[in-house]
Design a protein that fits this description.
About 5% of the residues lie in helices and about 65% in strands. The chain is mainly beta and about 300 residues long. It has a single domain, classed as Maltoporin, Chain A (Beta Barrel), CATH 2.40.170.20. It has a 16-stranded antiparallel β-sheet that branches. The protein is extended and about 65 Å long.
Length: about 300
């Protein structure tokens, strides 16, 4: 950059623009900071001494930009941006109203360079977001969104070309889910439903998964807790239409018959079955955990269990 001072001037102007709205609302509070940096990478040195160079860039960059504060007495927010001038950028946004909702979003990406001439590289991007609303103290609803995208070359070890394993590294995935949570007295109940789409450079691996599940928690008196969950997933390969059905059930109990002794019986059962005439996979686990606290404060633990698969 010809004139480094101009960057500092831009940062100062941005800071003024960011903090200015706080003057219009007496309840709102704005805080923040911004940092710029300059990176000079020696391209004439022996780059073969560092075969993997992670997020290596050259030039000016906004190292980080952080803004946080209160929109009102019960709503808080934060925004953080790191390395926003380069391909290794990261971002995080959080807005929370303690009485009503919670919003989160995270994004990060990275670049990995290989070889003495850095002629091979791959890029990775990850993102996830969630929104939860709580219209009443007992009930809340949520939506989750997450995914990733990988593309580029794999590591090359004395192999011609730039990709040791072909072009199979390129892939991406997207998952969207939502659900409800309820809390009533000494009981909690949750339900979720969603879909996951997987897209690979190798079309034979493309798939779509639909899943749902529920979980239940109950406290009976002061010495008994019950936790139960069930999850179902159906995965379908786009190329062949083959389906894979996965069922999983779990039950756990915590019981304290006397003050110092806790019993924890547990049971898990799972089946995986293709839609064709293929073999069915079944697994189950039955176990018992005992915890005893001695008068000296030492905890003695014993575990017993049986696991089967076929």
């Amino acid at each position: 950059m010809k004139n480094p001072k101009s960057v500092l001037i831009i940062v100062a102007v941005m800071a003024i623009a960011i903090f200015q709205p706080g003057l219009a609302n007496a309840q709102a509070k704005f805080n923040g900071e911004a940092t710029v940096s300059y990176l000079n990478f020696d391209e004439e040195g022996n780059r073969g001494s560092a075969a993997e160079l992670f997020n290596t860039y050259d030039g000016f960059n906004f190292q980080n930009l952080s803004i946080f504060g209160d929109l009102n007495p019960h709503t808080r927010y934060s925004l953080r941006l790191d390395e926003i001038g380069f391909d290794g950028r990261r971002a995080a946004i959080n807005i929370t109203d303690i009485n009503l909702y919670k919003l989160k979003f995270d994004y990060r990406q990275s670049r990995l360079l290989y070889g003495p001439d850095t002629d091979s590289k791959n890029e990775r991007k990850f993102y996830n977001g969630s929104f939860e609303i709580k219209p009443t103290k007992a009930v809340s609803a949520f939506v989750n969104y997450q995914g990733y995208k990988n593309e580029g070359d794999r590591i090359v070890f004395d192999s011609p070309g730039t990709d040791l394993f072909g072009a199979l590294y390129d892939r991406k995935s997207l998952t969207i889910s939502g659900g409800l949570k309820g809390r009533f007295s000494n009981r909690q109940l949750g339900f979720n439903y969603g879909q996951r789409i997987y897209d690979d450079k190798n079309n034979a691996l493309d798939s779509k998964t639909t899943f749902f599940g529920f979980d239940y928690f109950c406290r009976q008196m002061a010495n008994l807790k019950i936790v139960m969950n069930y999850d179902y997933a159906q995965k379908k390969l786009d190329s062949t239409g083959t389906e894979l059905k996965d069922n999983a059930f779990g039950l756990a109990i915590l019981y304290r018959p006397i003050n110092r002794l806790t019993l924890g019986p547990e049971f898990k059962y799972r089946t995986v079955k293709p839609n064709a005439d293929g073999p069915k996979f079944t697994s189950y686990l039955a176990g018992l955990t005992l915890d005893y606290v001695t008068p000296y404060g030492t905890t003695l633990t014993g575990e017993f269990g049986y696991e089967g698969r076929n």
